[in-house]
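Subject: sequence -> structure tokens, single chain

Hey, anyone have a minute? Need the predicted structure for the following. Not urgent.
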Amino acid sequence: MYSLLLAIIYLAFISLGLPDSLLGAGWPVMQRDLGVPVGFAGILTMIIAAGTVLSSLASERLTRRFGAGLVTAVSVGMTAAALVGFSVSGQFWMLCLWAIPYGLGAGAVDAALNNYVALHYAARHMNWLHSFWGVGASISPFIMSHAISAGLGWSGAYLTVGVIQAALTFALLVSLPLWGRVHAARSVKNEPDQDAAADHSGETRSHVSLAQALRIPGVTLILAAFFAYCALESTAILWASTYLVDARGVAPATAAAFASLFLLGITAGRFLAGFVADRIGDRLLIRGGFVAIGAGVVMLALPLPTNVVALAGLVVAGLGAAPIYPAIIHSTPVNFGRRNSQAIIGIQMAAAYAGSTLAPPAFGAISGWTGLWILPLTLLLLVALGLVMSERLNRLVERSR
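Reply:
Had a minute. Here:
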């Protein structure tokens, strides 16, 4: 029972990553076929981001009322419908309409799944699950490439991923009885994971409002840390290659390869972190991750006659970034109590989407005035913010015990 549900959740995390890279991979062809400017991709991403923020904030109420399993199944079903809708859209305004259920489904399932895993599974699974998200995000560009080269067009790629999501929706619906059984079994054994056993607050079905969650001591600290991390990650993914070419004179092909290694480093790093997460603990993973990112960014910025150190620094930064997101999520029930975890994880997801959405264009505007040399400095400031906020939370939690 436990292993079967865990396998389904692993498939769900792969499925979560599948749609995330489709738009970027297919947009050069999509914008030409739709006859819209290149910049219109930003409209779609903003609509999707708005939906994810709204559904993340509503996830606590939805999950308490309907359960994590049903919320996950319905949310994946909404995403599947939206992807199929994308595949049959011949006008840009149709994509905008389908982007609404796309975003709403993505935010709710992300918050519900992350909280369920944080409550019921060990830290190693949280890292491996997020590594599997990276697998899904890495596969979807190949799906888009194959569909275009096979003459199916970008709509064929969206239809393929939509069918995959629909199959997962069916599997989730069939598995609904398992979610409650695993929850009951883990609650009786009192072994949701090595850290959550320290939380004796118990669970209640009462609703924790947004205002109540924000008033809990330390919540604003972790939101700032999470915002900083996600802003850092998305900014590095988008701008690292351009920085290497324009500011350091790296050949475009080399820069693109190593910029992709930052994302691959995150995926591989989460897989490796899973083997030590239960022994090291979430706090050390977060602290060590920020320190490693800082070291990698310093290597990226060093004015050396060779670019080898800078390129290696990008890989180091990716490996350092790997465990931070899963560890922040996994530590939430411990830091704030099981009763409050769903509400707080929902807010954390909203902060994550806000950081990921707002930071890259903000950096683009700033670098237009200052130059791309400012990228390492920006990343170091975000590292400092994330590390300081997370360490302040650690001290606050220790004082409260």
